[in-house]
Design goal:
With about 70 residues, this protein is α+β, with helices and mostly antiparallel strands. Helix content is about 35%, strand content about 25%. Strands 1-2-3 form a three-stranded antiparallel beta sheet. The longest helix has 14 residues.
Length: about 70
């Protein structure tokens, strides 16, 4: 499983992790394009820094499907 760290385009703050759960050709490109549309270009009314909002929005608008990843530190 590949995990992707999403960062805010303006502040470079690390916002959260996602992983691709249903992969198609060019899934990496699709995730990158989706994050630019969502966070940088603000093509939604949702909170552009909320990873859960991004996952819902992305899964409704793209063929590739993603999920939020949480990591517990011991």
């Amino acid at each position: 499983m590949e995990i992707y760290q999403l960062t805010d385009f303006e502040t470079n703050e690390e916002l959260g992790l996602i992983s691709i759960i249903s992969q198609y050709q060019n899934s990496d490109d699709e995730v990158n394009e989706g994050w630019v549309d969502f966070n940088q270009l603000e093509e939604t009314e949702l909170d552009i820094t909320d990873i859960d909002d991004f996952v819902l929005w992305f899964n409704e608008n793209y063929v590739t499907q993603i999920e939020r990843v949480y990591i517990n530190y011991l």
